[in-house]
Amino acid sequence: MTKFSCVRLAVWLTVGVPWGLLLSGCATTAGAMPGLAERVEAQQASARQSMAPAGTDDRATHLQLVAQMQQNGLHFASLAHLEALQQRWGADPDSNLLLADGLRQTGQFERARQLYGDLLMSPHRARAEHGLGLLAAKGGGMVTATAHFQRASLAAPTDANILSDLGFALLQQGRLAEARVPLQKAAELATDNAKAWSNLALYLMLDGQPHKAQDVFLRSKLGPTAQAQIAAAAQAIRERIAGAKAIPVQDGTLPGLVLATSFDLNSWQTNPAGADALIKPPVVRPAVVESRTY
């Protein structure tokens, strides 16, 4: 079998040509079409290079690749890339922040908490406080979470995600008046952020303003499914807070509302594929929790 015929076989294997044609293709001689084998090999090499992960030879671009993976929900893959990145260039606050986020999203909470704590004195203080708040909220410690979100919002006052999570945490505790301003800020700062608009609509429903909530639904193009989910969540929060009034609490913490989904990807955030497709319906379970300081 000549060099060219083997190359031709490899090319056809990738596109699924029937075996009969593959076998007949090996009879072709390299001399029949001079230079074609080299051109095919060059094209294959170019294709392999274009399909390789971007940024493997450049630290900044590799970090961008990891951040994009996390935005797309590929958190385990991002951890693998971060391991390779830090082996090659060493750890620094930028990569450690992405590492902490990836660890949190993959359920490795203690390691994530430690990294966020180490980042509190770095330029990423706001996101570190935000991450610590998300970890506290996962355990139902809404008072502790709120404190972290408040410190995060002071460090990054225009971050819509932080403001939205701060408002959401306040809503869980029935602190509607305090939730209004951060939720309004978040919605106006990020007009295309479905989570921010959804949390604002949730506030309006809890505050007895269903007509204004409908205006938010129309403005943000949240569909009927999302609207029904938010209405159900508002009712669940009302019932939980009403039932908690006679229950002794510690550190001012009401019985926690533990969401089945992660706090920063909560049930009111819509899938980018469509405003009416929620990631998951809200699943809640009441639990008396203790607020801890991390």
How would you describe the overall organization of this protein?
The structure is a single chain. By secondary structure, the chain is mostly helical. Among the domains are: 3-51; 172-294, no CATH class. 64% of the residues lie in helices and 3% in strands. It is built from 14 helices and 2 strands, in the order H-H-H-H-H-H-H-H-H-H-H-H-H-H-E-E. The protein has helices at residues 3-15, 19-25, 36-51, 59-71, 75-89, 93-105, 109-118, 125-138, 142-155, 160-172, 176-189, 194-206, 210-220, 224-244, and strands at 256-259, 284-287. The protein has a two-stranded antiparallel sheet. Helix 4 packs antiparallel against helix 5 (75-89) and helix 8 (125-138) runs antiparallel to helix 9. The protein is globular, with a radius of gyration of 26 Å. The N and C termini lie far apart (67 Å). The model is unreliable at 2-33, 46-52 and 246-294 (pLDDT under 50).
